[in-house]
């Protein structure tokens, strides 16, 4: 027995795009007049991501958000190149150009690899955000993350100049990266919470994928801190085994007499 | 202390933690106030550094008088961008200039306190036997070291109490001010420790020459050394 | 392409309406999603072996999903009303197709990540064996993606089944029954259509003649028997 009799072959209408309403208790984006002010350039975008993140989230929903996304990506590239220069200053010589190039390339590749799954996972969660908005939120994540890395640059530089230990510098850069990515992901989650998603499980799963891919990318593009005869490694390894080998080597070196 | 009552600039304002005045300072900064803070840092921390170094030698006193203010200023400058970014991210909506100046004010307060204690330290050092290998093992040396730790800790705590009171003025809640202070402290301590390590010695060692910087200043770092020491203690290898 | 996010976001009431209207476009949409999504994923996992294996797996993986849906269509259509779900044969087929379409779209979106994993895995050489660490890791990672996609798709299916059933219990029972039948048939279809990643016995083939001998469950049973006897 069938509850719904089958009518004639009429294609279903795609439901009209429902206006995105925030979850109960969450203030709607754009209610504050400051949020409705457009973001004309990269400098304003940088200021906004730190002090008025909701303004960015609102502007990403407006027509012509491509310019904002472009500004954020440009800021990201500039910041990661600056940080890469500091990273490369540990080994100097070729790493002064190789490290910034690898970090910039790695970051963009990681984002491209993870973007399809971000969009699909968020759609599955019921998010009403368009692809452009998700690209914008991802760009915001990257910009905030790289801005913070630039903030850590003086500290990283100081330690780079005062140690010969690759392991120590690797741990330090990873620590800075984890702190930076924490704030970046917090921005992404805040933006996602305004997209009427039913659950955050998809986004949380994606976050794990993003972090793992990013970490593995650093191993795939090694060396970023140390030196090497080739630009890219000749041997493929996963990050856990690469880290394990480096730690073992460092432990052996510290035990052997000078 | 005689107040330099010029254009509202006063050490008393800083030390009393006059929040209305300090809020005005942060909101309407000018070159005079900046110069005042820098002067207090150089003089206060410089005097304390001189008192610290004079036990080893007059030249050491001069070196530390230069290095101590340098650590404070370099730490403030190097972490300025990071601290300015962390503040709004952690709920305190202030700009780069305001965050830098807030930290500078706290260091100014600490330097003023250290400067005030420098005659006391100088007097103690003058009364102590000269620094030598045997002196390093004596109770006097331990006492002077401990006293220095207490003075620096007192100056630091007082300065940070004033700072958090000021931050609470700018924040919507106490929790945000606390978070920002904690983050700034962590960043400044992290950077400052390593900078101090690089710029050693401060008290000096009788077995080593009086130098501005050690020859191996850029070899190794504070945290590696601490880690190796812990490892050695635990494994005795 | 606009339909894809709408399909993924749609709440159970909307999807139920689509099913009730029975548009052939919706069926084709699911089939195309399976072909493209699972096809991309298949291309990627076969690429570790060589280009030919990539093409073969790109064809075979969607075949597994589609053959399982079609092969179990009648059985699933009968089990549904028996377990309290008031749907026709066509509707039950479409419900299963929807869950496979969601799985395939998820796998398609994870294809870049899977490609990245393969790029980072030491390449296949003459020394690689079935018990090699890199092969084991690859199998595990790629299987985890498939399992994750499947779980997510089935979690999407359950609220949809509730829209058609008297109560939540019936919906759950039907889901479990369909899972059991699809896994049972799907395992054997996958067994017959192997290899997906690599066959050490020789060059890439679409399906070797030897794969029609034996079954997945016989092999598992024999392996378990050997393991027990080894103690």
- Regions of chain A with pLDDT < 50 over 5+ consecutive residues? 1-14
Number of helices of chain C: 9
- Shape by Cα distribution of chain A: globular
Helix % of chain C is over 70%
**Class of secondary structure makeup of chain C:** mainly alpha
* Proportion of beta-strand residues of chain C: under 5%
| Overall radius of gyration of chain A | 22 Å
* β-strand amount of chain A: under 5%
User: Order of SSEs of chain A, N→C?
Assistant: HHHHHHHH
The total of helices of chain A stands at 8
The coarse silhouette of chain C is: globular
The biggest beta sheet of chain A reads:
none
Q: Indicate the multimeric state.
A: heterotrimer
**Averaging pLDDT over every residue of chain C, what do you get?**
83
Return the average pLDDT of chain A rounded to an integer: 87
Counting DSSP E segments of at least 2 residues, the number of strands of chain A comes to 0
**Greatest contact pair?**
A-C, 39 and 47 residues
CA-based gyration radius of chain C: 19 Å
How would you characterize the overall build of this protein?
The complex is a heterotrimer of chains A (258), B (237) and C (231). Chain A is mainly α and 258 residues long. Chain A has one domain. Chain A contains eight helices and no strands. The model of chain A is unreliable at 1-14 (pLDDT under 50). With 237 residues, chain B is mostly helical. Helix content of chain B is 73%, strand content 0%. Chain B is built from nine helices and no strands. The longest helix of chain B has 32 residues, at 96-127. By secondary structure, chain C is mainly α. Chain C has one domain (3-230). Chain C is 76% helix and 0% strand. The model of chain C has no long low-confidence stretch (mean pLDDT 83). At the A-C interface, helix 4 and helix 7 of A face helix 1, helix 2, helix 3, helix 6 and helix 7 of C.
């Amino acid at each position: 027995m069938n509850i719904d009799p089958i009518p004639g072959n009429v294609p279903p209408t795609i439901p009209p795009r429902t206006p995105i309403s925030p979850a109960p208790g969450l203030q709607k984006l754009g209610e504050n007049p400051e949020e409705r002010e457009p973001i004309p350039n990269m400098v304003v975008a940088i200021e906004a991501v730190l002090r008025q993140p909701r303004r960015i989230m609102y502007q990403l929903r407006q027509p012509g958000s491509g310019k904002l996304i472009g500004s954020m990506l440009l800021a990201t590239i500039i910041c990661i190149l600056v940080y890469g220069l500091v990273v490369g200053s540990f080994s100097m010589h070729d790493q002064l150009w190789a490290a910034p190039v690898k970090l910039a390339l790695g970051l963009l590749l990681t984002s491209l690899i993870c973007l399809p799954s971000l969009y699909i996972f968020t759609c599955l969660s019921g998010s009403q955000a368009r692809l452009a908005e998700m690209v914008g939120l991802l760009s915001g994540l990257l910009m905030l993350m790289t801005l913070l890395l630039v903030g850590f640059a003086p500290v990283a530089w100081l330690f780079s100049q005062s140690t010969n230990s690759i392991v120590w510098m690797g741990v330090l850069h990873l620590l800075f990266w984890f702190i930076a990515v924490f704030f970046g992901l917090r921005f992404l989650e805040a933006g996602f919470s305004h997209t009427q998603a039913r659950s955050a499980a998809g986004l949380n799963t994606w976050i794990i994928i993003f972090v793992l891919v990013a970490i593995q990318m650093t191993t795939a593009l090694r060396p970023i801190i140390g030196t090497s005869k080739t630009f890219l490694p000749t041997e493929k390894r996963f990050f856990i085994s690469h880290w394990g080998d480096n730690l073992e080597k460092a432990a052996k070196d510290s035990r052997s007499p000078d | 202390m005689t107040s330099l009552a010029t254009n509202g600039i006063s050490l008393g304002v800083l030390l009393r933690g006059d929040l209305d005045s300090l809020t005005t300072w942060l909101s309407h900064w000018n070159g005079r106030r900046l110069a005042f803070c820098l002067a207090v840092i150089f003089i206060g921390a410089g005097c304390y550094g001189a008192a610290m170094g004079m036990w080893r030698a007059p030249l050491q006193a001069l070196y530390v008088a230069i290095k101590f203010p340098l650590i404070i200023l370099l730490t403030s400058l190097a972490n300025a961008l990071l601290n300015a970014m962390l503040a709004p991210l952690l709920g305190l909506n202030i700009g780069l200039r305001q965050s830098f100046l807030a930290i500078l004010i706290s260091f100014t307060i600490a330097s003023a306190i250290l400067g005030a204690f420098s005659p006391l330290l100088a007097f103690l050092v003058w009364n102590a036997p000269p620094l030598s290998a045997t002196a390093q093992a004596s109770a006097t040396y331990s006492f002077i070291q401990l006293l220095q730790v207490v003075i620096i800790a007192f100056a630091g705590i007082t300065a940070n109490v004033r700072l958090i009171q000021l931050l609470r003025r700018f924040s919507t809640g106490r929790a945000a001010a606390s978070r920002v202070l904690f983050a700034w402290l962590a960043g400044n301590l992290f950077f400052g420790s390593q900078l101090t390590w690089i710029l050693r010695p401060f008290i000096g060692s009788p077995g080593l020459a009086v130098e501005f910087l050690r020859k191996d200043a850029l070899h190794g770092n504070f945290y590696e050394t601490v880690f190796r020491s812990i490892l050695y203690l635990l494994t005795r290898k | 392409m606009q339909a894809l996010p709408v399909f993924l976001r749609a709440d159970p009431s909307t999807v139920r309406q689509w099913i009730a209207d029975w548009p052939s476009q919706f069926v084709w949409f699911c089939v195309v999603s399976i072909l493209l999504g699972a096809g991309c994923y298949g291309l990627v996992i076969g690429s570790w072996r060589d280009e030919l294996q990539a093409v073969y797996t790109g064809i075979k993986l969607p075949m597994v999903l589609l053959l399982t849906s079609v092969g179990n269509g009648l059985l699933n259509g009968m089990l549904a009303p028996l377990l309290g779900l008031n749907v026709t044969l066509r509707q039950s087929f479409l419900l299963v197709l929807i869950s496979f379409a969601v799985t395939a779209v998820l796998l398609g979106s994870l294809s870049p990540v899977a490609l990245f994993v393969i790029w980072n895995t030491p390449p296949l050489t003459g020394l690689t064996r079935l018990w090699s660490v890199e092969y084991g890791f690859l199998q595990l990672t790629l299987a985890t993606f498939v399992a994750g996609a499947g779980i997510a798709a089935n979690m999407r299916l359950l609220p949809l089944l509730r829209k058609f059933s008297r109560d939540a219990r019936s919906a759950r029972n039907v889901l479990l029954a369909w899972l059991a039948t699809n896994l049972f048939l799907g395992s054997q279809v996958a067994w017959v259509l192997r290899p997906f990643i690599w066959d050490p016995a020789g060059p890439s083939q679409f399906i070797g003649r030897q794969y029609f001998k034996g079954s997945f469950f016989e092999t598992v049973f024999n392996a378990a028997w050997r393991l027990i006897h080894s103690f």
